[in-house]
Amino acid sequence: MQQQGGDAAVNVTANAAADAAAISAAAALLEAGRLVAFPTETVYGLGADAENPQAVAAIYAAKGRPQDHPVIVHVAPGADLDYWVSDVPEAARKLAAAFWPGPLTLILKRASHIPDAVSGGQDTVGVRCPSHPVAIALLRAFKGGKGGLAAPSANKFGNVSPTTAQHVRDEFGAEPLLAAVLDGGPSEVGIESTIVDLSRLATHGPVLLRPGHISAQQIADVIGQMPGLPDQSAPRASGTLESHYAPHTPVAMLAPGQLPATLAQLEALGRKVALIAYSAITGAGPRVRLPDEPVGYAYGLYAALRELDQSGADLILVEAPPHALPWLGVNDRLRRAAFGSSGIVERFLRA
Ligand code: TXA
Ligand code: MG
Q1: Residue identifier of the C-alpha nearest atom 23 of ligand 1
Q2: How high is the pLDDT of residue 41?
Q3: Position in ligand 1 atom list of the atom nearest CA 126
Q4: Ligand 2: distance of its center to the CA of 153 in Å?
Q5: 151 assigned to a ligand binding site
Q6: Which residue numbers in the chain have pLDDT < 50?
Q7: Domain YrdC-like spans what residues (predicted)?
Q8: The pTM of the whole model exceeds 0.90
């Protein structure tokens, strides 16, 4: 664990059992109302005691996040869902049994004691039990395993989520509100959890609010019903804002057939173009080659976006992945990263 602000520095590795002292120090900081960043299998989280409104307020302050965006409550394996949720549907118990600990967040009717700051003023709460060993050790140590950690991704609002402890330090530097960063190595999934809304089952059925590593089909296989896509009245999720998870450098996606010619044209015009590709494309600028399958691609995506964002490129070109269901989570994150830059390639080619 790295204590910020000059306190004792201790290193926590993915081997949580070997770092019991650092884990209990982090749990004590959280119990005292401080913020601690910790690894999960999806991305790193910026954690606070979910039942301490001041601690949750500090998350919003550190992230620069609007007050009405709810945060997910992370719980230990075997936690009592009925403590956090007012009316647990059978589908939620089945999904928790099938996928927890793991990268699935359930949106459910909240129990009355959950602070407004956690639920963003809505009548629901997002709950998830992460599978990363350091996250599990922390949740077991915190309040004796009976607490919940409110934790959004540990990045400034709208930025790319962190998948390493170094990414978290890059985001928050000397932020005084952040008491410690637990280092558990790179997050193995690499994109945020799948979110399924079960809070309006009777009227709307299950709804997929954010695609991720656990697919709609896997959810359907467990509950016997395919989750629908969100409608206007679905609970708000900041991860569902069109522009989100975006680097500062403009991002554009191009079909594999178009990419080499466009890249050559942009480079001929003197543009410094960074490239994320899964096939062998050559160019002059910095590039990251990601695997041509969605699991490995998701694992490397955010680190690639961060690295190329630091490269001084005018543009990050992304070879568009296939429009196939296994790529849904990756395509969703790429679309959001590129959202604010629509038309950028055409503008560069005209200029
Ligand atoms: O994988 C993840 O889910 C990571 C790790 C740290 O667990 N967390 C994460 O948190 O991505 P965050 O806050 O960056 O994104 C969570 C999303 C947000 O879009 C938030 O609006 C939505 O979940 N959310 C949380 N509680 C909700 C609720 N009660 N109703 C609807 N959406 C909710
Ligand atoms: Mg986030």
Answers
A1: 237
A2: 98
A3: 26
A4: 4
A5: yes
A6: 2, 4-17
A7: 20-214
A8: yes
Q: Is 187 close to ligand 1, i.e. is its CB under 6 Å away?
A: no
Cα distances (angstroms) measured from residue 20 to each of 74, 161, 165: 19, 27, 18
- DSSP states of 199-235: TTHHHH--EEEE--SS-HHHHHHHHSS--B---TTSP
Question: Which DSSP string do the residues of 14-51 spell out, in sequence order?
Answer: S-GGGGHHHHHHHHHHHHTT-EEEE--SSS-EEEEETT
According to CATH, where is 3.90.870.10 located in the chain? 2-195
| Cβ proximity of 101 and 137 under 8 Å | no
- Distance between CA atoms of residues 280 and 88, nearest Å: 49
Report CA(115)–ligand 1 centroid distance (Å): 16
Is 161 a known ligand-binding residue?
A: yes
Q: Is 40 in the pocket of ligand 1 (CB under 6 A)?
A: yes
Given ligand 1 and candidates 71, 168, 240, which is best to mutate, with the most ligand atoms within 8 Å of its CB? 71
User: pLDDT at position 245, please?
Assistant: 77
302: Cβ–Cβ under 8 A, 6 or more apart, which residues? 43, 160, 161, 162, 163, 167, 190, 191, 245
Return residue ranges of the chain for CATH 3.40.50.11030: 251-350
> Relative to the alpha carbon of 207, which ligand is closest?
1
Element (H or E) spanning 97, and its range? helix 90-99
Model pLDDT, residue 159: 92
For the domain bounded by 251-350, which CATH number is listed?
Answer: 3.40.50.11030
d(CA 230, CA 37): 30
Are the CB atoms for 184 and 132 separated by under 8 Å?
Answer: yes
CATH 3.90.870.10 fits 2-195, yes or no: yes
Tell me if 131 CB under 6 Å of ligand 1.
no
287 is in an annotated binding site: no
